[in-house]
Amino acid sequence: MCFRVSGDVNGGDFFNNLKRIDDEHGTVFRRGTEFVSEFPEALDVSFSIRDEPCASGLRDTAPRTY
Question: Which pLDDT belongs to residue 58?
């Protein structure tokens, strides 16, 4: 049996038009002409985990010891 995990993050309007910009000076976040430097106090995070048959070419592996 295999599992598929997906997720979603909701921050109200916070992520609307939010852009990540990477350049030689580092990473900045902008919304239009506004620089964004703080995240909201709370975000809603949800995960969905579903079991499904494994692909036919997938091989069993030994369990990992941690």
Answer: 76
Handedness of CA 8, 9, 10, 13 (dihedral sign): negative
pTM more than 0.70: no
Closest to 36 measured CA to CA, from 22, 18, 16: 18
Distance CA 10, CA 5 (A): 17
Average pLDDT over residues 51-58: 84
d(CA 34, CA 18): 10
